Structure formats: C-alpha cells, structure tokens
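Entry for iron/sulfur cluster complex. Fields follow.
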Amino acid sequence: MNPTRADQIGPLDMFKIGIGPSSSHTVGPMIAALEFRKYALTKLSESVPTNDLRLKVELFGSLSATGRGHATDGAVCAGLIGLHPKSAEPEEIWAAMPALQAQPIVQLGQHRARFLPAEDILWQGWFLDDGPLPHPNTIRFRLLNADKIVTEEIILSVGGGFVEPVDISTGMRRLPQASDVQKCVPYPFNSAAEFVEQCKRNGIPLWQLVIENEAAKGMDEATLRKNLSDILRTFDKCIEAGLRTDGILPGGLNVKRRAKALYELMKAGKAPGWSGSDLRPSVFAMAVNEENAAGGRVVTAPTNGSSGLIPAVWRTLQETNNLSDEVLQNGLMVASVIGALVKTHASISGAEVGCQGEVGTSCAMAAAGATAMLGGTPSQIENAAEIGIEHHLGMTCDPIMGLVQVPCIERNAMGAVKALNATMLSLASDGEHLVSLDRALEVMKQTGLDMNQKYKETATGGLALG
Ligand code: SF4
C-alpha cells in the first residue's frame, strides 16, 4: 500500500529491522528484488521454456550514482534469491553476490534463470526510456526468455526501506488503487495540529492514540509492544557490537571506527569536562552508524543513514533516567508519528530532499519521543519535533564515495545531541512557539525541491568532491 495519510503508517513501518548500510539503497532494493521474485513466480507458467530465461536489473538515478558504495548490487542479489533483510543474517546476505557470480543461476520455482551480477546489473543514468525518472531511486527488473520480455516491474525505493511499484504502462508513480483502502482508525490525524488536538480533546497521551489506531488496523497492543521490544533489543545489540569493535570500515575510504575508543575514554573518566562530561549520545550514535556502515544488523530510524540517533537517545535516557521498557516503547510510538508525518508531507529520502529528510527527521522523531518519555504534553512534543526539524532545514546529502560513512556517522552524533537539546528546550517551555511543525514540514519539502540534484545523494557535490 502507498500510505497517503500519516495515521496509516505505524511504528513497525517506520522502525524496520534490516541491514546496513542504507535503507533506500540497500534495504529497499533488496525488498524490491524480493517483491519482483514473488511477482515473477506468479507470472511464470508451465509453457515458458526453462532453458533460456535471464534476469536483468537496471539501477537508475541515485541508485546508480552511489549504489556501489551502498552495496545495492549485493542487496539486489540477496533479494533475488529470496532473502529478506529482517530474517536473513548479514553474512548470508553478503554471500549472495559472490555465490551468483560463481554460479549465475536464480531458481524460480521449477524454473532456472541466468543472472550474472557483473553483466546483468546495469548501472543506468537519470532517464527511463528517454523520459524522466519517476523517483531518484528507480529500479527496473526484467525476466527475459531469449530477448522477449516474460515479465517486468519498475519499483521505487522511496526511503526508509519503503518501496512503491510503478504503473508500467505510464512509467509514473502508481496512484493509490482501490486495494489501497485506508483503514478506519478511531483517532484520525494527518497533521501535527490534528494529533495535538486529538490528544487534548480525548485526554489521552500520544502513544495511546497510536495503540488504539494500530488495534483498529489489526495489531493488538501486546503484539505491538512485543515487536517494539524486539526493536529495542536490536538497538542495544547494535550499540554493544559497535562499542566492542574497532578497525577500518569497508568500502575503500579507510575510515577508522571511533566509538570503541571514545567509549573507553569516557568510561575511564577522561572525557574533557567542558564537553559536559557525557559523551554517551555521541558515542552510542557512532557505534550504531559504524555497524551500519559495516553492513551489520540495524533498524531504520527512519532510515539506515540516520539509524544511530534514536538508539543513542533512548539508551542515554534509559541510563540517566532509569526508564522502563514500556516507557521506551511509548517513546518509539510517539517518534513514529513524527516520522509518518514527514514521510507523508515531505520525504525521508536523502535522494529526494537531502539529509534534512534523514538525520533531520530522525532528530525530530527522537526529540518528540524523548519529550514524551520525560512527561511532556502533546504541545511540547510537537514543539520538540519542530525544533529538531527546523535546525536541519537545508542540510544536504553528500556522502564521500557514496559510502554511508562521511559525513553520516558524525552527523548522527550531532543529531543525537541536538535532539536532547530540543527536548530540554521544549520541556522548559509551555509548548507555545512561532513556527508549527506542519509549517516546518512544508518548508522542508520545498527546500528539498529547490535543492540542486548534486546535493541529493548523488556523490557529485559538496563533501563528496573531496
Ligand atoms: S549524508 Fe545524510 S542523507 Fe546522505 S547518506 Fe549520509 S545520513 Fe543519509
């Protein structure tokens, strides 16, 4: 389904357990390949000869410009052989491409299709059949019998691991279909003003609104909380892995992992006093983003590039304020509402709006969740999210060599600190403020539209030029 209202996007849509290094360039393409595999299986009939089938995958736009650095090719291979980013182990996922390169066969039911990654993944440009791309992250999958197309699909990776199929006859983004019926929810909202109003009118906290809405969509509270608990455990495991690992990150940029050494410095009480003596938000964020850069197990929050910020804020507050698992889950529900609003009214894709849509969104989500966990009112939550967005407006996406390392890793550390600052500022006020979150999202969208393409995850501008 292509959600067109924020209340249709739940916490488990925003927080997806997957693999690094990118949600739009790794997780999304892997899910897209898996979707195409399922689609192709339904289209293959007994009458199709089995001896001359071939798969082709074309990567367009930003996927082509930075896909090698983001391991898009490896992710596509894993999806084509039927692996899912949540259930498959990272080692299994990264073994798929070498295995296909050695033996270029994808088994599709009883059919065998040839697929040699080095030849059959095509790195294309910014046009689709001489027309504009429907999205900067466009993929075309084709199953051919000799030169004849058996079936094909165009799928967009629109950020945060979300994918959308395209109407193949027009090459344009598919409009909502009758099957995309919006689910009726007891507390509808499609703006920040509306969620604040719903909470105030009904006298319920924002996370309770999410619980009731998700229940109406078919997920009871116990199941929702169990899934959120799994997400919190994945956050923790990822932080722990990052804190005990050092060395050089893969990809050729020779970026050194720093979280472990910083953590040891902090534990030894050697962090400089003028830093506030608490390096935790920065260190935890960097630990996660280093794991992400290494292709490890991470959670979209809302993307992989911005996956460190929320775990860092949650872990810091858990340690400083002794927050319970239930409160941490409540915080995730609140954060997801902000992510859903950004996704619906602006974008969480660096290729569409720059890093304001990734780290900016994550900062707003973290600030809102933290404010809720520390007892803030709905107005203060909205205020915290707005502060988080406002001070990231215009931030570009220019990863060096297309790797999610520089500036991404430090950017999460900076975002985590800003999120806690936004939380303090909102909790110290009454929630009244000049620029609404809804207005900030309009500005974010327009800023993204105005932003030069070279600053939108193409590795052709800014820091990426060295
Ligand atoms: S610069 Fe920001 S948007 Fe771009 S890849 Fe890095 S984290 Fe993602």
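NOTE: The mean pLDDT is 94.
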